Amino acid sequence: MEQMELDMRQVLKLLEKRYASILEIARLTRELEDALGRDDRASALLTLQMRADEMAKAAEYMEEIWKMGESNAQNLQKLRWLFRTEPSDASEEGEEERAVYSLRKKICQMVERLQASDKRLSQRVAGLKSYYGTTIKI
Questions:
Q1: How far apart are CA 29 and CA 124, in angstroms?
Q2: What single string gives the DSSP state of each residue in 15-29?
Q3: pLDDT value for 1
Q4: Closest CA to 33 of 46, 45, 44, 20
Q5: How many percent of the chain have pLDDT more than 90?
Q6: Rg of the Cα atoms in the chain
Q7: Which residues 6+ apart lie within 8 Å of 15 measured at CB?
Q8: Can you state the angle between helices 95-126 and 73-84, rounded to 10 degrees?
Q9: At the N or C end, where does the chain have fewer CB atoms within 10 A?
Q10: What's the whole-number average pLDDT of the chain?
Q11: How far, in whole angstroms, is CA 136 from its chain's centroid?
Q12: 137, 49 in Cβ contact below 8 A?
């Protein structure tokens, strides 16, 4: 039985969709901060739901990528290499691999910014009951 080679164009397409979803999550996070700043509970709740929906989409794109590795062990090994190797440590094989590493770097940077925003929001809304335990002003 002939094994199918990993479709790197499809991997890139899904990763680009994931990045677009993460950018949308960032936009919605800013919108949530604004709604909370105005004490607009209805807008905040709606924005939270939209943000959760976008997070689910981003997770689905990554799930689709990993499913591409289920067809054979070689594809799974390549995906593991692409997504678990530090981009700075990887020997880049080609243009598509470089594009994957570039997108991974952008995604990691955006996720770090989102985590910092989430921490501020949590502290602002929950105060001492926040997972982070202190209050700060935005």
A1: 14
A2: HHHHHHHHHHHHHHH
A3: 46
A4: 44
A5: 70
A6: 19
A7: 61, 65, 100, 103, 104, 107
A8: 60
A9: N
A10: 88
A11: 25
A12: no
